[in-house]
Amino acid sequence: MAYFSNGTEGAVFEDQCAKCKYGQLPCPIAFVQMEYNYEQHNDKTGTTTKLLNELVKDDGSCSIYEAFKDDLAIDINQMKLFDE
Predict the structure, then answer these.
(1) Contact partners, residue 80, CB within 8 Å, separation at least 6
(2) Enclosing H/E stretch for 25
(3) Which pTM value belongs to this model?
(4) How confident is the model over 27-69, as pLDDT tens digits?
(5) Which residues have CB under 8 Å from 55's CB, separation 6+?
(6) For the chain, what are the domain ranges?
(7) How many CB atoms lie within 10 A of CB 55?
């Protein structure tokens, strides 16, 4: 999903980012998505579009988050360690 054609797709991506540990810091997937989103239209080889489509699916979900959900999902209990 290299290009968010409507607000719903962007909202799905942002909602998933909020559940990810990277949501608190600059995420490399979100950075690449936003940086090259419009640039892909000028890429005659289609490489940029293929890469962005692999990272973010048509429904706006992040493939990296889905593949590594156990590692990337925010653990509320872990966050409490810093409150003590």
Answers:
(1) none
(2) none
(3) 0.67
(4) 888 888 878 877 777 888 888 888 888 888 888 888 988 888 8
(5) 29, 32, 33, 62, 63, 64
(6) 7-83
(7) 18
